[in-house]
Design a protein that fits this description.
By secondary structure, this protein is an alpha/beta fold. It has one domain: TIM Barrel, CATH 3.20.20. It contains 14 helices and 11 strands. Strands 1-2-3-4-7-8-9-11 form an 8-stranded parallel β-barrel, surrounded by 6 helices. Strands 5-6 form a two-stranded antiparallel ribbon. Helix 7 links the parallel strand 8 and strand 9. The longest helix is centred in the C-terminal third of the chain and has 20 residues. The chain is globular.
């Protein structure tokens, strides 16, 4: 059975609005909610980027049952791994064990702000591997001292831990990251519906006698009563996706994304993102992920101005269609 999530898109909405949307998403019937964790929006036109961890703390108190998750946090530069472990443990407590810590190797867009440069992809993967090892040890409750290749920890211990261990998930993009992270975390994150990655992740888990993972994906939709207006909104706010993740990880500022996406046309966006009022068409856009074996799919409704109407009037019916179609 597929589980459906709602994305708290910090790049397109302010923190007070996002808490309200989180409550609306729970009421609408979403199974879980994910929050992006950015310092900058992708494009200047998006206009927001509040602190994800303060937001999630507020959401944990404003909601009751819906699961929460970072999608995703980079625990290597802007945040250090020991601090991420402390934040995750606290959020696990505040949410009554509803929180999953989603981790990734980050984007230059958000991490360059600490002034330490931007490592190449192979180094970022090494850093993330070491960070996950540190976070895991701290969440297990022990006191650790660590002298690794990238991080040093001096007598760290978490004093407030949730009753249940915080689940860890890692974002992967290829076979190398699967070999690294499948044995280290609980769940799999990807933004592209590639069945071979899902199958290989499961194979690595099986060979290491580890339980099955959740397979968590995310995709944008742009519901709107007027299809062309929805396409225009998606083009204004989401054309940044056009370069692909290998490019997106390295661009440093919203201005760089503006320039990199200047030749992406509205019709290009419409071909990649389901737009308009047809709920069956929106539902159909999830099919590649379901066929690839994803168990959890978080929807991004593009545009702040559309969120309240989407959550109050559209999402309950869309979720019914999705559950009839995919289970």
């Amino acid at each position: 059975m597929t589980r459906y999530g709602y994305t708290l898109m910090t790049e397109q909405s302010g923190p007070r609005e996002l808490v309200r949307y989180a409550v609306g998403a729970e009421t609408a019937g979403f199974d879980f909610e994910v929050s992006s964790d950015h310092f900058y929006p992708w494009l200047e036109s998006m206009g927001h980027s509040p602190y994800a961890w303060a937001l999630l703390g507020a959401v944990a108190q404003a909601t009751e049952k819906v699961e929460l998750m970072t999608y995703v946090t980079c625990p290597t530069m802007r945040y250090r791994p020991a601090v991420v472990a402390q934040k995750a443990a606290t959020l696990g407590l505040l949410s009554d064990n509803r929180f999953t810590l989603g981790l990734g190797s980050g984007e230059n867009l958000n991490e360059h702000v600490v002034g330490e440069g931007w490592p190449v992809a192979a180094v970022r993967q090494d850093m993330l591997t070491e960070a996950i090892e540190i976070i895991t040890k701290l969440l297990e409750g022990g006191q650790i001292t660590w002298a690794g290749e990238y991080f040093r920890i001096d007598s760290a211990k978490l004093w407030d831990l949730p009753d249940e261990s915080v689940r860890l998930a890692a974002a992967v993009s290829g076979q190398g990251s699967i070999a690294r992270f499948a044995p280290l975390v609980d769940d799999f994150i990807a933004v592209e519906p590639k069945a071979d990655l899902v199958e290989n992740w499961a194979d690595v888990r099986s060979r290491n006698d580890l339980p099955e993972s959740r397979v968590i994906g995310q995709l944008p939709i742009c519901w709107g009563r007027d299809r062309q207006a929805a396409i225009n909104r998606a083009h204004e706010l989401f054309r940044w996706f056009g370069g692909g993740w290998y490019v997106n990880a390295d661009l440093p500022t919203p201005a760089a994304f503006e320039h990199a996406s200047q030749f992406v046309r509205p019709e290009d966006v419409a071909a990649a993102i389901a737009c308009g009022p047809d709920l069956d068409e929106l539902a159909e856009s999830l099919n590649p992920f379901v066929e690839a074996g994803f168990t959890d799919l978080a929807l991004v409704q593009v545009g702040d101005e559309s969120q309240s109407e989407f959550l109050d009037q559209i999402a309950p019916e869309l979720l019914k269609i999705l559950r009839r179609r995919y289970g």
